[in-house]
Automatic annotation (TrEMBL):
The lineage of its organism: Bacteria, Pseudomonadati, Pseudomonadota, Alphaproteobacteria, Rhodobacterales. This is Alpha/beta hydrolase. SUPFAM superfamilies: alpha/beta-Hydrolases. It comes from the Bacteria.
């Protein structure tokens, strides 16, 4: 039995060994807190694509929202512009950021005549409002997140390079895939095209159900029909929607667990230093991992 961990974005300065240590420490702490243990024969793999992704981001040089405003409202990639607007509009639809919040973030002397993502001045102010509402998830990180997801979904060279790194770790052994953040998008794509001996899939803090992302995925399917568990903190802005019949309609249905209380700064972390508790410190997530490992 093996557990294949697939990391998220913003890991380019690390390595497979560093991630193994970080995820391993979080898992060990979660197991200890829950009074549980994994079977002795469980092996772990941590394919690392962080540096590859960062290299593609550097090559792409997609501007941030503030730079797009200065450029007259276009990044030069119409698809990316539309993708950015769509995601921010969906965040706006949550209703947690008011028009007053956005106007409070406007630059001195400026005025937004038309509120909404079609107006790049609004986009810039809205990103700042998100920063104020979720201090641990900064406006810069939103821009980075949008860039990373867009490049993976839209650019075949990026997707192929990242997928190849993960696919090199696939075996015929019974495997539990545990993926986080952007890694859940990667794992979905990998499992859609590679049929492995999959005992289960756990997605943590997944953005898969964001409309702009599902639109790029094409026909949706349950890539882990035996058992797919999607866990998230409702305060995690990346996990904008659950993978339910409304936002991610597949058969069989995905089991959603929205009771995570992720106390890392952005409610999105995987581990965290004590007393912080990321996704791998949640008792029910740990219980599910152990249950999968004992199949």
């Amino acid at each position: 039995m093996r557990i294949l961990f697939i990391h998220g974005r913003a890991q380019g300065q690390k390595s497979s060994d560093i991630l193994r240590a970080e995820w391993g420490a979080a898992l060990a702490r979660g197991l200890a807190d829950a009074g549980l243990s994994l079977p002795a024969d469980v092996a772990f793999d941590h394919p690392f694509y962080g540096k590859t992704l960062d290299d593609f981001v550097d090559q792409a040089k997609l501007p941030q929202a503030s730079e797009i405003v200065a450029m007259g409202g276009s990044s030069g990639d119409a698809g990316f512009d539309s993708f950015t607007r769509s995601v921010l509009q969906e965040i706006d639809a949550r209703g947690e950021i008011s028009e007053a919040d956005v106007r409070a973030q406007m630059e001195p002397g400026s005025e937004i005549e038309e509120m909404g993502p079609q107006n790049w001045a609004w986009v810039r102010a809205f990103v700042r409002a998100v920063d104020a509402r979720w201090p641990g998830f900064s406006g810069a990180r939103i821009n980075d997140f949008l860039t990373d997801v867009w490049l993976y979904l839209d650019k075949p060279a990026v997707q192929s390079a990242i997928d190849a790194i993960i696919e090199a770790e696939l075996t015929d052994e019974p495997t539990l895939v545990v993926s986080h953040s952007l890694g859940t998008v990667v794992s979905y794509n990998i499992l859609r095209t590679n049929k492995i001996n999959l005992v289960g899939l756990m997605t943590l803090g997944s953005p898969l159900a964001i409309k702009a992302i599902t639109a790029k995925l094409g026909m949706l399917e349950n890539v882990a029909p035996k058992r797919w568990v999607n866990a998230y903190d409702v305060a995690d802005i990346v996990a904008l929607n659950p993978l339910d019949s409304t936002h991610f309609p597949v058969a069989p249905k995905i089991a959603n667990y929205g009771g995570v209380k992720n106390t890392t700064g952005n409610h999105h972390g995987i581990g965290g230093d004590a007393p912080e508790r990321g996704y791998l410190l949640d008792a029910k997530i740990i219980e599910q991992i152990v249950a999968f490992a004992r199949l």
